[in-house]
Structure formats: structure tokens, C-alpha cells
């Protein structure tokens, strides 16, 4: 099966300033960009922030192709959102909404492209530790995030492969030919993952 990304760029080994930056600082940048999307009301500011993030992404050595790969899955959705908002609220508002979404995606991709997955999961564990007093399990939470990061690209890749196979047989308009194989493969993947976790004693809650 082909490898497929899903919205966020994969890690790119490097020694740039961003690669060496503390994980907490990168988390704060992503959080700030998320808050920015609720605060900023001028599309020009959003465009400037997006350009700055794009420059940082390219400066990290991740490359334009990887940046486009993170944004491309959103393109059809952003087009629909942009057209609808332009019709309802006008061009400037539509541009601001679309640009703010891109700011969040590129900021998150900047984090994942410059941080190894294990370091990200360790950071998640540290963030979740204060919630232990409420019964949360930081290790399990990080494990869930890790499984999600692996499962989403797998399912996306499965759908793309099934779609190409159905198209080759002239069945691209048949929902059953698309949905059923993806469903079966996803269930099989989930069972294999569950069995692997159970074999390591990670699949069941502690008494």
C-alpha cells in the first residue's frame, strides 16, 4: 500500500533552528496560531502570518512539495468554504476564514515536520500529567494519539488504493465497490492493532 499523509507533514530530519527549538515553544506557536484564527479580523494579517509560517516551513528544509502535500487534502473543502462565505459575507471575510484555517494547518505541520514522533508523544505525556489527579493516564493518552497518527494515513491510503482499483474496473461510481473494501481493510487493521496491544499488555485498563 502507498504511504499517504493526512493534513500534517511527516517528520523531516534536519538541524535547522526549528528542529532544535524546544518542543514547548513549538506547542505555544501552534496554540497562538489557533487563537489567532479567532481574534484576527483582517485577512491581510492572516495572509502575512501564513506567509511567515510558510517561510519558516521552507527554511526548515521540509520543502515546498511537503508543504503542498499537507495543504492539498484541504483544497476542495477550502474552496467550498471560501465560495460559500464569499456569497454570504463577502470577499474579505471569506479570505480571512480560509487563510486562518491554512494558518492552523501550516503551523501544526511545522510542528510535525520538525519534531520526531516520539518526542511529540513524550510532550503529550508531559502535558497530560497534571490531569492524573482526575484519573487520566498520560501514557495511554499518548498511545492513543500515536495510534491515531498511524491509522488515519493508513485509512486514507486504503481509500485511495481502492478508488484507483475501482476506477480501473469502471466501478468508480459504485459506492459499494468503494466503501466495502475500505471498511473490511480498516476493521482488519483495527483488529491487528488491538491484538498487538493486547500481546504487550497495553490493550486493557488496569484494575
Characterize the structure shown.
This protein is mainly alpha-helical. The chain folds into two domains: 1-115, no CATH class; 131-207, no CATH class. It has nine helices and no strands. The chain has helices at 17-20, 23-39, 43-59, 64-71, 75-89, 91-114, 117-128, 138-168, 175-199. The longest helix has 31 residues, at 138-168. It starts with 16 loop residues before the first helix and ends in an 8-residue tail after the last helix. 17% of the residues are buried. The model is unreliable at 1-6 (pLDDT under 50).
Distance between the termini: 39 Å
The biggest beta sheet is recorded as: none
Instruction: Quote the beta fraction.
Output: under 5%
How many helical elements?
Answer: 9
The poorly predicted ranges are 1-6
Give the radius of gyration: 20 Å
How many domain units?
2
What structural class do the secondary elements suggest? mainly alpha
Query: What is the helical fraction, as a range of percent?
Result: over 70%
Tell me the overall shape: globular
What string gives the helices and strands in order? HHHHHHHHH
Give the overall pLDDT as a whole number. Answer: 75
Total beta strands: 0
Protein name: Biotin transport system permease protein
Organism: Pseudarthrobacter enclensis
Membrane topology: Multi-pass membrane protein
Subcellular location: Membrane
